[in-house]
Amino acid sequence: MSVTHYICKYTPVELLEAFGGECAILNHMPDNFDLSDQVSHLNLCGFGKALLEAVMEGSVKELVLVNCCDTIRSAYDVLLEYGKLDFLFMLDILHTGGECSRERTSRELKRLAKAYGEYKGTQFDYKKFAAAFAPRPRPDGPYISVLGGRVGDELFAMMEKTMPMQVQNDTCANNRSVSAPEAELPFDELMDWYAGELLGQMPCMRMTDITGRKQLYNDPNLKAVIYHTVKFCDYYGFEYSDLRRQVTVPLLKLESDYTIQSSGQLLTRLEAFAESIAPEKTIRKGKTRNMNGKGLYAGIDSGSTSTDVVILDKDRNIVAQAILPTGAGAAAGADRALDEALRQAGLTRDDITATVTTGYGRTAIDLGDQSITEITCHAKGAFFLDPTVRTIIDIGGQDSKVIRIDDAGNVVNFVMNDKCAAGTGRFLELMARTLEISLEEMSDIGLDWKEDVTISSMCTVFAESEVVSLIAQNRTPADIVHGLNRSVATKTCSLCRRVKGEENYMMTGGVSKNKGVVAEIEKILGVKLHISEKAQLNGALGAALFALEM
Amino acid sequence: MYNIIETFGKTVQDMCGRNPDSARRLLRLGYHAKNLQLKFAPGHLHHAAQMAAIETTTSMVAPLDHPDDSVMVSIFTPCEMLQVFGLHPYCCEGLGGFLSGAGAEKAFLDYAESEGLPETFCSYHKVFIGAAERGLMPKPRFVVSTSLACDANMLTFRRMAKHYDVPHFVIDVPYEQDGDAVDYVAGQLRQLKSFLEEHTGKKLDEDALREHVERGQRSMDNFEKYMEMRADRQILGDLTGEMFSAFALHTLLGTEETEHYTEECIRIAESAPPASGIRLVWMHTSPFWVKELRQLTDFNQNLQVVGCDMCFEGLMQTDVSDPYKAMARRLVYSTFNGPVSRRIDRGIEEARRLNADGIVWFCHWGCKHTLGGAQLAKKRFEEAGFPCLILDGDGCDRSHGGEGQMATRIEAFIEMLGQDKEAVNL
Question: Which residue among A206, A241, A271, B323 has the highest number of C-beta atoms inside a 10 angstrom radius?
Fold first, then answer.
């Protein structure tokens, strides 16, 4: 028997089952949106595209939608034209829960009952209807709640695997809770009652009155929140914007585009969050690989551009360090960098008591006893270099991040931008190439500007064309570089605001060497940035410190 | 001219960070100056276009001049009742567009994003939120919004009401077009009347409301007639003018100014020369900040935008004997409501009426309704004999860039249309 898929918690699942339907919520994340992009638009929300993809590839044959949002209404339009579905229905649910809304919803339920009954060739069966109401259990102990926009099954499984305690899916479609009927009623009356129950659920963000949503984050067992948004879904970004000031438990903002590919990129953030909320469970202690080591501890930071190594002695003194290009493979790059550091200090691998790896390539490296995310390691390293630091701005080759730490050096919040080159070292590198100057020149001339020019776009492609037209307008390279620096600084300071950055600030990563960018960030924040000589080694230093504490 | 605007925009943005009240005064001054320029040096604008531009600019300045009598609304909110109460609608899309027109959008967009709002959210709304929350926009008396025509309305206005801590009234528009839906919306409009009476302490003059709704209907009838006449006439205008017209026919519908504007449109059409050049129907808002595009579309004998669905989506015959139902009907039967096929069908109907050569479907960043229906629209338009260009861009956020690409696409499209017509020299 084919399955009737649904996507929204306001869907009358029990009614469909009363007609013999077998219902399943659609939360699958596809590999790509090839089929969806052929019939719709790239900038539709990721879930809308996942829905179109599932129908177009033929894995969904019966679908009941609710006019939840612009994307779902658009998906319905597209499916009416292109979808080869056996059954397609969209229920019109209003944005309010009053009496008029209930009457209208009741009519919609009867319209669906008629259409679905005719399609299935079955009659409404009250027993099946009553049996279909399944109470949704709440966690009975400490838990982490996933809130916000719907989360794909695959990403949720990753969350469950990464988090140090039970995870509850409270995202839009998954926090469904409809009470069972107390007694059998005539069908019309039953539908009136059922409409009220459906609308009486805790509201989703599309509803006019959303005050009932507070129950989601006022549970004493709630220990942390992962707030998930889907790219190009607007509703839940607004709730996140409010929530980040209201919740007192740790909060991680995560955005996915609803592909499996994007979920992989989110692993670092999830692991870093797990490390920050339960370091005792996620960062192992007392397990060293080499009991014969000489009390030396290695940290390896495998970044997109360079692999950095720091070796510490038991007194936290740096005995060796190396920075080498990562090259084609993270593992080989780590081998080379570690060997170089050992060579400098006249050591061998057997002398190392414990090794911790970090950075993008950390999981690809076999050398380490443990891998810890670069977020936690950066925080550790920065706090070691300067215990007065509370906010770390790290702009590397392929991502930029801002990390907030407390007075014990623990991560309390962080935000990362790694979706594209916008605001990263790679962005500046490409612009320097367009201007035909070196990165060193770029660092200096950005301070020597005369006229203010605006670079509107942070998209590498569009910014490059802006730079080209500024060159054509005879703007000086210094003015253009200043415009670029300001653009990167604005983006970075926006991240600082998002984590509620506090003094003192430290800047690390390759871009901390760019004097112009540093000056612009200082100007916007109105504070002086601390830039350590060891800034580039910060991640490796943090990893080595963790190795020492293992 | 562009440098003056750029400097003005930058000053407003910079000043807003330090002293929002001064920034607001400067903005007010700028818009008053713009109005003077429109009155005394309108450039190529014909008289009707000049009237729409002045009417819209005046309405944008009014909330800055009289914040205590301002009401924050969306472009689709019926405003006749507000007009009767002497309140000034304070239109989100209009102010977002105007701030962008003044080159003052970036700092507000950045601010909104730094507050955690999605980068992918509609930029008209995002500019508006950023400007409001940075203190540029004055506190309105209350907020009146509608669920038509997009999700952004549900989000922006709820946030604004909370931000300013003012009452909020939402007109919820069902997806289906039927009598029940009209009754449901009319019922809400009657509740709006009570809401307005409660918060202003005044009684609504029902006769005055009827007069405004009747005037609105006459204005729509005039505009329909103008569109009929436009079919075989050449009326040169600019793309921004279509947006002014959209405001005149929405937020300002029911005012004497809009009625005069539509009467003037007919007079302009009566004396216009015969049609010539390529004629386009434009679907959705337009990226008026793109100079390269304006150079192609504005006051060009060889290429004219002859209609825009932001203007004609709500034109209809309504029975004005019940003003509440008449206003409700406009919302329920707006072609932006319900399936996108309604909007597409209306586009085809108007393209036929206007003797258009092609249709541009402008996918404004973040507008899911327009994006989602793009491929479908192209297919249907082409089946109906109208070549269609899907143009991606942003109506007000310059950082989304792509000016060159947009101009190239439009030019190639015009060249393509020109192959079937006489040779066109752009």
Answer: B323
pLDDT digits (tens, 9 = 90+) for B154-171: 999 999 999 999 999 999
Domains and CATH numbers, chain A: 3-134 (3.40.50.11890), 161-282 (no CATH), 296-375+539-549 (3.30.420.40), 391-531 (3.30.420.40)
- Where is pLDDT greater, at B114 or A145? A145
Q: Distance (Å, rounded) from C-alpha B274 to C-alpha B135?
A: 50
Residues from chain A that touch B374, judged by Cβ atoms under 8 A, are: 40-41
**pLDDT score at A426:** 81
Contact A235 B187 (CB under 8 A): no
A456: pLDDT strictly greater than 90: no
**Nearest chain B Cα to A90, which residue?**
B175
Q: What is the pLDDT of residues A327-377, one digit of tens each?
A: 878 888 899 999 999 999 999 999 999 999 998 888 788 877 888 998 999
Domain count, chain B: 1
- Tell me if residue A100 falls in helix, strand or coil: helix
Which residue range forms the structural domain that includes residue B298?
2-420
Residues 6+ apart with CB under 8 A from A24: A3, A4, A5, A6
Distance from CA of A463 to the nearest CA of B (A): 8
Contact B78, B330 (CB under 8 A): yes
Predicted-complex ipTM score: 0.94
Mean pLDDT taken over chain A: 90
Q: Is the pLDDT of residue A423 over 80?
A: no
Do the domain assignments include residue B172? yes
- Distance set, CA A56 to CA A60, A232, B144 (Å): 8, 21, 40
Which residues on B lie below 8 Å from A77 (Cβ)? 339-341, 372-373, 376
Contacting residues of B for A231, CB less than 8 Å apart = 120
Please tell me the distance in Å from A94's CA to the nearest CA on chain B: 6
Residue B358 within a domain? yes
Please name the residues in contact with A339: beta carbons below 8 A apart, sequence gap of 6 or more: none
Judge whether B425 lies within some domain. no
- Nearest CA to A173 among A262, A92, A235, A80? A235
